[in-house]
Amino acid sequence: MRERDEGAPAGRRVTAMDVARAAGVSVSAVSRAFTPGASVSARTRARVMAAAAKLDYMPNALARGLMTQRSNLIGIILTNFKNPLYLSVLDHFTHAIQQRGLRALVFNISRGGDLTEAARQILQYSVDGLIVSAGAISPLLAGQCARRQIPVVAFARNPRSKDIDVVCADNVAGGRMAARLLIERGYRRIGYLGGSAQASTSQDRGKGLVGELEDAGLSLHCSVHASEYSYEAGRVAARALLSMDEPPDALFCANDVLAFGALDVARHRFGLSVPGQLGIVGFDDIGLAEADSFSLTTVRQPIEEMVRETIALMMRRMEDPRLEPETRLLSCSLVERGTVRGPRL
Amino acid sequence: MRERDEGAPAGRRVTAMDVARAAGVSVSAVSRAFTPGASVSARTRARVMAAAAKLDYMPNALARGLMTQRSNLIGIILTNFKNPLYLSVLDHFTHAIQQRGLRALVFNISRGGDLTEAARQILQYSVDGLIVSAGAISPLLAGQCARRQIPVVAFARNPRSKDIDVVCADNVAGGRMAARLLIERGYRRIGYLGGSAQASTSQDRGKGLVGELEDAGLSLHCSVHASEYSYEAGRVAARALLSMDEPPDALFCANDVLAFGALDVARHRFGLSVPGQLGIVGFDDIGLAEADSFSLTTVRQPIEEMVRETIALMMRRMEDPRLEPETRLLSCSLVERGTVRGPRL
DNA sequence: CTGAAAGCGCTAACAA
DNA sequence: TTGTTAGCGCTTTCAG
Fold this sequence. Notes:
By secondary structure, chain A is α/β, with parallel strands linked by helices.
C-alpha cells in the first residue's frame, strides 16, 4: 500500500524484490544489474537502474556478504593514537582500501584491551583481511585467522614469528643510519631515548644504534625507555638523561614526538644549544619535523610504500592463501635538517 | 588440548548448527547462549559455550545484522587527515563506540570524493548511525538517512540546516574570546588567518573575531584564507599577511597547525618577536600546542565532550527517531600560553 | 539472457 | 526453558 510512495515516511526498507516488481523483472535480474560484469542485457539493466533510482534502492552489503562470503571489509587494529604519524597511516590505509572498493573497520586498542579479543570482535564481521599494528600476534590469533582463510598482516611491528606476513621499516638499519651520522659528525657520548621497552620498533632501532656504535669501537653512553611514544614522555626521559653527571652529547630518539620533547627540554630547560652542544636524531619524519621550530634531523619511514606493500601482500594472499608468509623490511632514509651539526669542511 | 586440529582444517566455516550438534542442542539454544539476557538455562549455556570454544565458533555478525536489522556498525566520514586533532577525535570516537559494543566503519574523503557518494557506500552496510565531519550534508543525503531511520550527526561542522543533529564547538564565541584577549592585551592591528573559505568552522571563527572587534570599535586589519588546515598552508598565508605595507600586530589563526606555520614564519623568516611584536592565537589546542617551541595561546575545543555528546545524541535518536533535530554548541575555553603578551600590571 | 528456487548463518515467533 | 520453523536480502546454480 505504501509501497512505491516516494516520500514514504519510515516505510519498510526497499529490497531487490521491490525493485524487481517496479521494473517488471525478476530479483535475479536486479542482482545482476548491480553486479559488474554479470550477464544482463543493456535494456534490462537500464530498467532496473531506473526503478532502483526511483525507489532509492541500494543493495544490502550484509546480505550480499553473507551470500558471497566476501564482506569487502578490512579490519585495522591500532594502538598508537598519540603519534601523529598514525593519522597519516590511517589516511593512506583508508584511501588505499577504498580505492579497491573495500571499507575499513577500525579498532582501537590504545586504552589497553587485548589484541586477541579485539581481533575476535572484528572477525565476527567476516572481514576479508586484517591489518594489525599493535603488539605481538599470538599463535592463537594467527591460527584463528588461518583457519578462516583470513589474511593477516602485521604492520610496522616485527613479531619475530615466521608464520605471519609482516611489513615493517628496517628499523635496525634505520638505527644504524642515525648512529653513523652522529659518529661522523663528531658526537661521541651518544645516548638512546627509546620508546616502550616491549615495542619491537624501539628495540630494533636501539639495536641498530648499538650495533653501529660498537662497529665503530664506541659504546652506548646511556639510555632510557620513555613510557610511551609521546611528547611529554620524551621530555621526562630527556630530563633524566641530561641530568646525569656526564650527560650525552647526542641523542637518538625512537620517534619524532619523543625527539620534539627532548629538543625542547634541551633548549628551553637546560639551555643547551642544538646541534652545537647536543645532537638529536628522530625517527618517522612526521609533518611537523620540518617546522622551523624543530627542523629535526630524522630517519624517514616510508609510510606510503609500507601501506602499499601491506595491501599488496594482503591481496596476494586473498588469491592464494597457501603462500609462504613473508617479512618485508622497507628501507628508511636519512632526512638531514638542523639538529645535527654539519660536516667539517 | 587439541584446539588446533579440532575443526575442519580450513574447511567449511563453523556455524551455529555445528555447535548445536556438538552440544546436543538446537540452533536456537546456541543463538540464545550468545545473546546476553536471553532465556537459557545455565547448563545449556555452559554446554554450548564449551562446544563453541572447542570448535572455535563465533557468531556471524553479518547474518545476525541481517536478521536483527542492527549491524552494530557506526559509520564515520572524515575529511581532515592533516590536522593532528583528528587523530585524537578518532581515538575518542572509536573508544566510545567500542565501549558500547559497536564498531567503527571509517570512510576517508580527504582526497576529494563526494560526501553523498561516500555515504551511499556506507549506508549499504546498514550502519546503525552515521557521524559526518565533512562539508555540508545535502538534503538528499539527509533524506536517505531519514527514510532508513539512520541517525546522522554532523560533527564539528555547522551546516545551517535545521533538519539534522549537529554537535559543534561554539566557534563564533571562540572567535570572540580570541579577539577580546588580543584587544585587552593592547594589540590593535588584528588580522585573521582563516582556513578554507567554505569551511563553516573557519567562517564562524572569523565571524566571532570580527564581531568582537567591531563591538570594541575596531575593525579587521586584514585576512587570508589558507588553502587547507595545514602547517605549510599556514606559512604561505602568514607570509602574505606579514609582507603587507602595514602588517598586522596580531593574528588569530583558524587552527593550531596554521598557527604553528604563522609562528615559525614570523620568528624565523621575518625575525619578529612573538608575543612582543606579533601576538598569535590558535584554535583547537592540539597536544603540541604546549610544546616549549610553540607554547601557543589558543582556544580549546572540548573534543572529548563533543564526542560524548555526539554519541549520546545518536543513541537517543536510535531510540526515538522522531525527535526534533538538535544543534548543540559546546563552549570553548581560552588556554593562555606564550604567544600573546601578558596583561599590563 | 532470464526466472525459479535453494540457500548463506542467524534470530524470533510460536509451540511444546 | 527448549525446539521448530519462517524468514532477513541477497547471489547463484540450473532450467528454459
